Structure of 3-phosphoshikimate 1-carboxyvinyltransferase:
Amino acid sequence: MNISLEVKQLKKNQTICISGSKSETNRLLLLQALYPDLTIKNISDSDDSLVMKQCLQSRSLVKNVHHAGTAMRFLTAYFALCTHEKVVLTGSERMQQRPIHTLVDALQQLGAEVTYLNQQGFPPLQINGKKLQGGKVILQADISSQFITALLLAGSKLPDGLEVELIGKVTSRPYIEMTLRLLNQIGIEASFTDNQINVFAVKNTINSEVTVESDWSSASYFYSIIALSPIGTTVTLKHYRQNSLQGDAVVATIYKAFGVNTAFKNNLVILEKVEEPEHRELTLNLNDTPDLAQTISVTCLGLNLSCKLLGLHTLKIKETDRLKALYIELTKLGGNVEVTEDTLTLSKHLGIRKNISIDTYDDHRMAMAFAPLALKVNLRINNAEVVSKSFVSFWENLQKMGFDLRTIK
């Protein structure tokens, strides 16, 4: 499905309900599989979470996660410790190009039986579940946090617990801390000191209820919409907490630089454009929150602000090579862009080109990050249905705010 987007007049003071965080949901779904007495409320309705549930509940010997990276990583660790369980874990063509050897190596250190069915270091995987005792693994700290989280979620089921020693500077630390805080919340003892993480074996039955907070990564697109709107424009988002577990909640602080104020009231968060940006150049290190890079770079393009975004080395192994994709699409729109292995630099432009078709590369965040730019110019989004990976009702919510959407060939 390709769509054209334009905004004749944005509707002010709308209230939007975003489903539960995909990151929290998928962690909790795996913990629920380990501890069936755990109850989860406000589960994400994203494709990734649906795939996670299906793979955990299906009796099929072949588990297909499609494009769901979190499911691939988390389920690799889960099935490795499911005694007498033998499964093949596979995914889409792109998933089979995303390396997983770091996680497999760590599991093999613990005694797991995991082998590669095609290319060494990549899915699909043959996993023969067995009883693992636990112990210590050593990992480079700059790897995807999902590898580390996969181990931590499984760690409490190991009789000897789990110790993870990280070497170097940690990438996406808030996602690791989210995992540990969720473990603590349901009664599992876990700690993160310096570069050492410990998860202790559970001695008692887990009996808990957790309500998933709405997704802050999804909220970021509404921050972009408000930043690109006139002063006085507001939107209210449901089911958010000021003391969030999610690393991407830092978007509230980042978007102050774009003139967006954030106010919390009960379980609501109210965004308001209060001023135009004072700074014409922005430098941000997104090492901890790389999923915000697409949203921020498009906001800067729309406001004609220069920016330098650092710490983006993990973007190359996401749903697509996001650095390459951003370079291509921002350039098509008239942006002056440079990228390196871990940096994106955007300079001021002479004007945004109209009626450009944005390719999405099977990446939900490419579609959603570029959509707010319709406040500045008419544009097209190709394969717009990819948003269902994390935000099923995204386009309906944009229509509610006054975006005019038309399906095109």
Notes: The chain has a mean pLDDT of 95. Residues 257 and 279 are 7 Å apart (CA to CA). The first helix runs from residue 22 to 34.
